[in-house]
Amino acid sequence: MSSIQSVYPLGFPWKTQDPFLFCVYHRDLFPKGNDSQGPHPEHLKGRMIGQDFTVKDGWRMYHGQQVPGFPQHPHRGFETITVVPEGLVDHSDSMGATGRFGHGDVQWMTAGKGVLHSEMFPLVNDDKDNPLLLFQIWLNLPKRSKFVDPHYKMLWAEDIPIHKTEDAEITIVAGDFVETKALNSTPDSWAADPENGVAVWLIKVKPNGNLVLPIADKEVNRSIYFYKGDTIKLGEESLSTEQGANLHADQETILENGGQEAHLLLLQGKPIGEPVVQQGPFVMNTQEEIYETIREYQRTQFGGWPWPKNEFVHPKEKGRFALHADGKEEIR
């Protein structure tokens, strides 16, 4: 029997399965930066500033006015896993936490009962281009965890385990790969319980190489996204780049690559199996909970915004670091 359930084109965002809500792939070839760590003014002509999602000259401004990215905005009821293989992200939030991460780092943030945060893409290089590669994955929280305190942790590139075979390299953001163990997620995450089978793997397969995906529990939803390369075979099925597939996790899948290095993202986990009502950045179980969330956000702003700008960025010479709400600082 084939392990493939379905094959589909990768759109924007990518199609996901429970317990995942959302996955976007951002690839932006940002130009040299100016003194404000944004594009020079001539690069902003012809763009819909504040709502620039159309690729022009290889990049977008998103919601940024001066610096590309996503100025302060709210979340409640789920988690964001932000994987940044290339480029930098400046994070700030309503807890008073902040940081700069990238070049292989991952930020895992539990929004829980509510948080404001910003994710800006500072163009720190003023003498060369500033390419960015970023995945943002939304992982749902079960009803019992919707109102936990917000929290974030860093998985630094130097610490993230990598499983290597003769033909492949698997960067393990979550979910053990054979004998290679993943780092811990945030404590209230659906991924914190190994029984839930959550995995987030970045997979690279050499030209003409192959990889056998480990078998998981029958209840696990497994999706694979082929975003860079030429062609791959999953059993008897051929996939072209910019295609995804849902797989039977309890059946062996042999991935055979073609003549170019293949880059893939795999997401899997047991479904939470609860009602999902989403309105923008809020994910709850009922419509009434959504209405109450909106009312609370309008009333409290989830604690307010402590930073001087909605698109706050750090000085360009600042390195990778994380300052947490409890005052603890990590420097890389």
UniProtKB/TrEMBL annotation:
Signal peptide per UniProt: none
Database matches in InterPro entries: Pirin (IPR012093), Pirin_C_dom (IPR008778), Pirin_N_dom (IPR003829), RmlC-like_jellyroll (IPR014710), RmlC_Cupin_sf (IPR011051)
Residue span, Pirin C-terminal domain: 203-303
Database matches in Gene3D superfamilies: Jelly Rolls
Protein name (Swiss-Prot/TrEMBL): Pirin
PANTHER family, sorted: PIRIN, PIRIN-RELATED
Family under the similarity heading: Belongs to the pirin family.
Domain Pirin N-terminal: residue ranges: 61-139
Organism: Ekhidna lutea
A Pfam family that the UniProt record links to this protein: Pirin_C
